[in-house]
Amino acid sequence: MGGFDRFGRNTLIGGALLLLSLAVAAAGVIVSMRTGNTNFFLGCSIPAAVLIVAGGSMVRKDLLPGEDRLLLTGGEQTITAEVLGVTRNLRTAGEKTSYYIVCRYKDPRTGRTETYTSRSLDEYPGKEVIGRKVTVRVDPGEKGKYTVDIDALFEEIEKEKRENEQADGMH
C-alpha cells in the first residue's frame, strides 16, 4: 500500500511543509545562537510561520469532515452506511458547539470498514438517527473525499414524525 493510498495527497504535502517550517526555524535558532545576532532568528521565523500556515491548511483539507471535503466531478461511488452515533467538536471559548453524524460502511467484498463524518450541524440531531442508513458519495480517486447525505435522513425522520402524529390524532 503506497503513501497516497493511506494518506491524502494534501496531507502528505502539508506534512512536508510543516517539516520544512521546523527546519527553517531550527536553522534560524542555530545561526542566531552561533552569531549572537537575533536578526537571523527573526528572518527565519516569518518564512517558518508562512510554511506552518500553508502546511496546516493542506492537512486540514484531508482531515475536515463533511461539507469541507468536496467531491471532484464524475467518478464518484455511492455506498450506504449505518449511523453509529453523533459526536461534537471540542470547542474553545467563544466558539459554538458543532455536531457531526458518524457512520460506518463495511465493504462486503474486502471486509474493510470505513468511517465517515457528516458536515457540521448547529443542533444536536437527536438519538433517533442512530442505526439508520445514510448515503455516502465517495471519490475513489482521492482518499478522504466524500460527502454524507444527511438531508435525506432528516427528511425520513420528519416524515415518520408527521405520520406518527397523524396516527395518534386518529386514536
Write up what this structure looks like.
The chain has helices at 3-6, 9-35, 39-63, 151-170, and strands spanning 77-88, 99-106, 113-117, 133-138, 146-149. It is α+β, with helices and mostly antiparallel strands and 171 residues long. The chain has 2 domains: 3-63; 67-170, no CATH class. It has a 5-stranded antiparallel beta sheet with strand order 3-2-1-4-5. A hairpin with a 6-residue loop joins strand 2 (99-106) and strand 3. Helix 2 packs antiparallel against helix 3 (39-63). It starts with a helix and ends with a helix. Mean pLDDT is 79; it is low at 1-6 and 65-73.
Provide mean pLDDT, rounded: 79
Side-by-side strand order of the widest sheet: 3-2-1-4-5
Using only C-alpha atoms, the radius of gyration works out to: 23 Å
Strand/helix succession = HHHEEEEEH
Question: What is the general shape?
Answer: elongated
Note the beta-strand portion: 15-25%
Main β-sheet description: 5 strands, antiparallel
Q: Quick one: how many beta strands?
A: 5
Q: Given the structure, what is the number of helices?
A: 4
Low-pLDDT residue intervals, each spanning 5 or more residues? 1-6, 65-73
* Class by SSE composition: alpha+beta
